[in-house]
Amino acid sequence: MTSILICTFRNLPSTSKWALRFSVRPLSGSSQLRAAPATQTKSKKTLAKPNIRNIVVVDGVRIPFLHSGTSYKDLMPHDLARAALTGLLHRTSVPKEVVDHLVFGTVIQEVKTSNIAKEAALGAGFSEKIPAHTVSMACISSNQAMTTGVGLIASGQCDVVVAGGVELMSDIPIRHSRKMRKMMLDLNKAKTMGQRLALISKFRLNFLAPELPAVAEFSTGETMGHSADRMAAAFAVSRLEQDEYALRSHSLAKKAQDEGLLSDVVPFKVPGKDTVTKDNGVRPSSLEQMAKLKPAFIKPYGTVTAANSSFLTDGASAVLIMAEEKALAMGYKPKAYMRDFLYVSQDPKDQLLLGPAYATPKVLEKAGLTMNDIDAFEFHEAFASQILSNFKAMDSDWFAQNYMGRKTKVGLPPLEKFNTWGGSLSLGHPFGATGCRLVMTAANRLQRNGGQYGLVAACAAGGQGHAMIVEAYPK
Fold first, then answer.
1. How far apart are the C-alpha atoms of 419 and 252, rounded to whole Å?
2. What's the mean pLDDT in 172-195?
3. Which residues are catalytically annotated?
4. Above 80 in pLDDT, residue 15?
5. Is residue 67 within 8 Å of residue 281, measured between CB atoms?
6. Three-state DSSP class for 322?
7. Are 441 and 378 in contact (CB under 8 A)?
8. Mean pLDDT of all residues in 282-301
């Protein structure tokens, strides 16, 4: 293992000093993941605050998350978002006219529907008089949509907000090169044939080379996969540990599917095709099969592969958020309270995917809770290496003291409470839609298992992260 890490570091671009130091202080990932959890101290208090409105998530849905290039490939993003909204309306029977505002998150925008929230709302039959806007914050875009809705309700601007997110990776916008775009714009402005011919004479074949969007950091030029590989090396996360965790995600997701636990999924009749009823990325394999895959990003010594990474996904989600008094007046039984939340941001070069490690202790302190109070953890799984590296950071006094300004570590989430119905590695990760899935899964787990508090956390491009506490609504 040591020799592999040394070779890896030699081939990794600009491994940071903090990461290198941490890598020679490895934590035993396997022993940590198998360690018995601390005894849970069940909290009886509520996180309601005086003179602040209680805000609840009444319910939420998502259409099945599918591998890009499959059943949704001929649709547009607003088609998926409209399907999620229609599913939410059917699930909740909420009258369209009581909705005060709609907010949707998305990452790679379709230029024809730049404000996809509005287009989807109109397509789902909402009045043109209802405001709607779109937000983008990379993989936490629908988290931002939800918390924007929380802010609108908390400030008294609204009583009822629909928030959601969508991503269609099957049809991403591909642009002409900048030189070609400039020529086409100039040609449109040219007034005489002479001016047009002069511009055309400057054309070169390389103008036709397209610009493809990349899942990469603009500021660093590095893809997330490369960052995940560097993080795995920095935190001494082995290939076997990553494959074991990915297999766990797929196995738990398959079990949840088979037992009907993924109740947020609503069927979607794809125009011209069959009705889609479940996520198609859930594929439990074996460690032997996973071990045969070659590194996907850093070759030949990388440890991140297609099997231990989330895949490009199409999908959409939506949740109904209300002031508690409004929900009760309308006869609803909410799923959960949406309590404290926050966003964090770190260096995107060295700490791109560590948002959960930074956000978790902060949101717990803000809410006056500890790790032992949490009954359901729902973390976004971008890569197995990302989850395991966050675990090691959260369970390290050294990391807490040197990089988080904390005296002690926050601790490791017990696996029996962590992503027990699968996660993004298996269920899929439509960039703009995952946040709503996390919140609804946490709420549904609490309702089913009798817990009180859930903690949702996710990383995002730009070194950003999000965490939120949800509290089960009393039965």
1. 8
2. 91
3. 139, 459
4. no
5. yes
6. strand
7. yes
8. 96
